[in-house]
Amino acid sequence: MSFLIYIERIYLKSNSLISDLVSLSDHSINTIVDEVMICLRCLSYEHFPTFLATLGNIAASSIPWTRSLTGNKLTLGVIHQKRREILLEMTKILNTICYPAFEDICVHIEMHKEKNMSTFFQSMCGGQETSNYVAAATSNVHEGQHVWAEDRTVFLKFSKGYPISEAEVHAYFTWRYGDIVEAIHMGGVGGKDQAMYASMVLRSAANIPDIVNDGVGKTKFTINGKHFWARRFIPNHRIR
Predict the structure, then answer these.
(1) Given pLDDT bands bounded at 50, 70 and 90, which one contains residue 108?
(2) Which of 70, 167, 175, 179 is most buried per CB count within 10 Å?
(3) What is the pLDDT at residue 236?
(4) Domain boundaries, the chain
(5) Which of these, 154, 113, 153, lies nearest to 137 by C-alpha position?
(6) Residue 2 DSSP SS3
(7) Can you state the angle between helices 26-44 and 48-55, rounded to 10 degrees?
(8) What pLDDT sits at residue 132?
(9) Distance (Å) of CA 236 to CA 71, 125, 140
(10) What is the pTM of this model?
(11) Which of 164, 166, 147 is nearest to 207 (CA)?
(12) Averaged confidence pLDDT in the chain
């Protein structure tokens, strides 16, 4: 993904490459993926002749889709020549676009699953409220105004090897900012592994700038000597 965004930024006049790819057939997408993988392999080799020797297929070295897309400006030779520059740009794209996007997609899926489960139990129980999440989704921030939970959510990213519990998160933010937390959804847990992230739904979107500097970027916090980072939750449908 980061390589495609790099091509879009450097060689294309529009920023619709990714959305255009979605409309293609599975066969076309698979062909493009294979070509991108060849380009990534090229970037992984220090010596270009060594890389070419691994292809074993002369046709594979032509990368026709990439060359056509960039007006023949980007060939495997050029990719290897600009190797350091491309890898640097891809790293920036990974950190600023790809990682946040995929993290938020994971949180969005978990929140959606929990909302669907709540709806199921409501239908089984005659419409009774069974989950704090449903209430969180449409609670009042100002009189007569409804704000969706995703607009009142802060994404928390924990450090591997430094487990932080839901109770610790709730106690910390309540102690520091008062009764602002409506719900906390821990995520990324597998077996005995720690939670790697969490989505924290606030009672009011107005509290977000108190936690995240100016409502943007990342803010570092420490709970019991364990570091973690907070930023505004960005729903996947708003990314890019």
Answers:
(1) low
(2) 70
(3) 59
(4) 2-81, 105-238
(5) 153
(6) helix
(7) 140
(8) 47
(9) 31, 32, 24
(10) 0.47
(11) 147
(12) 77
